[in-house]
Amino acid sequence: MAENRDDGLNDLRKRIAAAKARQAPPPPKEEHYSQAQQGWRMVIELVSGLLIGFGIGYGIDVLAGTMPIFLVLFTLLGFGAGVNVMVRTAKEIQAKKMAEEAGEKKDDARG
Prior knowledge:
By secondary structure, this protein is mainly α. It has a domain at 42-111. 85% of the residues lie in helices and 0% in strands. The chain has helices at 2-23, 35-64, 69-110. Helix 2 runs antiparallel to helix 3. The protein is elongated. The two termini are 47 Å apart.
């Protein structure tokens, strides 16, 4: 009788484990960067370009005694460099996303 009870208990455990496995959510996809992190990365790139351009322009103006010619010029150049880096980052993110989607489509076609 104890043996019958153990068999029933083991059978119940197996069925519970199988039901849990069926209802378990799929493992989350591991994303290297979240969208918020990517957005902050782009903002930091733009601001750092501006600040570096501002610093270089201000330094040259102080050394040359020509306020604010180089300050304005290098701030604009820093802004342009920051925008350029942002555009490259956006293209890189888009290329990775398209590669992931292409990989998923290949997996769907095989399945």
